[in-house]
Every structure is written in C-alpha cells, then in structure tokens.
Amino acid sequence: MKYITFPTLIILFVACNTGRSFKKAEDAQDAGREFIRASLDGDLEKASFYLYVDSTNKYLMRKWKKDYDKLDAKTREQYKEASIMPIAIQPQNDSVTNYTYSNSYKKDTTTIKIIRVNGEWLVDLKEIVNTRK
Q1: C or N terminus of the chain, fewer CB within 10 Å?
Q2: Where are the alpha helices (DSSP H) in the chain?
Q3: Which one, of 112, 79, 75, lies nearest residue 96 by Cα?
Q4: 37-52 pLDDT, tens per residue?
Q5: Residue 64: phi, psi to the nearest 5?
Q6: Rg of the Cα trace of the chain?
C-alpha cells in the first residue's frame, strides 16, 4: 500500500502545481502595463497570459522571445531595469484601446492594441506600430 500511495501523491502534487498564476487585467491600461512589463523582463509566460491567443500573435511572441534571448546579458538587464513611459491610452470604443508608450532604455515609441474579448482585456500584436523618435 505504501508503494501505491507515494507515487499517487507525487502525481497529484505535480498535477495540481500548474505553475505561476497571474491576475486578470481589470482594464485595458492594466493589460497593457502588465504585458509591457513582462516583455521588458523577458517573461514569456506572463506576457503570453495577457496576449490574445491566435496563430499570428503566437508567432509574433515566439519571434520576440527568440530575438530577446539573442540579446547580451547587459542589454537584457537594461530592459529589465527600464521604466514604462505611457504616452497615450486612447479608447477607440468600449472594446478596443490603443496604448502608446516608450521605455526609459530605448526611446522608441510603440503603440499596441488592447481588445476586450469575452470580458477579458488582452493585447493584440497584429497591429503594433513602432515609431522611432
């Protein structure tokens, strides 16, 4: 009986431990901020939590992660230490908001679209706009 119980407990423990959990965004600004922070930190799991999941966004996230992983350690650290600098958060309607921001490391201005799907605010990267200042 001991031999059956111990493996069963291990399987149960592993099955219940699904990894980190994240808080759903309360609004578009919250979703944008959490996604951007996770992106700057190189945290694919957290960034993906705030991402609208479709094949294009999955592809863009994989590409972003691959490019991020190629950065040298110093550059990654500078991104992690960077502050998010919101420039404009503009609702287009009750389900779409454009979030324009920069960060204190790179001065590029980027606009991401945040959409509400089934009551959840999620980032949609398909229409990302990156403008150098």
Answers
A1: N
A2: 2-16, 28-41, 44-49, 55-70, 73-81
A3: 112
A4: 999 999 999 999 999 9
A5: -60, -45
A6: 18
Give the DSSP letter string of 95-133. Answer: SEEEEEEEESSS--EEEEEEEEETTEEEEEEEEEEEE--
CB distance 86 to 99 below 8 Å: yes
Segments forming the whole domain that contains residue 107: 27-131
> Across the strands, what pairs with 69?
none
User: CATH number for the domain including 104?
Assistant: 3.10.450.50
The per-residue pLDDT for range 17-37, each reduced to its tens digit, is: 456 899 999 999 999 999 999
Residue 62 included in any domain: yes
